[in-house]
Design goal:
The protein has one domain. The chain contains 2 helices and 2 strands. The chain is an alpha+beta fold.
Length: 51
């Protein structure tokens, strides 16, 4: 996957980011901060969600 190479993501994160981009999803909530490396996706971590 291109996003995997561009952002240096592991396969599962790259797959999630690729599907989100394809579906025009602009934000993801996840405790995995590596997703912040994906271009065009805003990452909300548990701390940012008021945990």
């Amino acid at each position: 996957m291109q996003i995997q190479q561009e952002a240096g993501l592991l396969f599962n994160n790259a797959l999630l980011a690729a599907v989100a981009q394809r579906l025009h999803i602009q934000a993801i909530a996840s405790p995995d901060t590596m997703l912040a490396l994906a271009k065009g996706i805003t990452l909300y971590c548990p701390d940012a969600l008021g945990r």
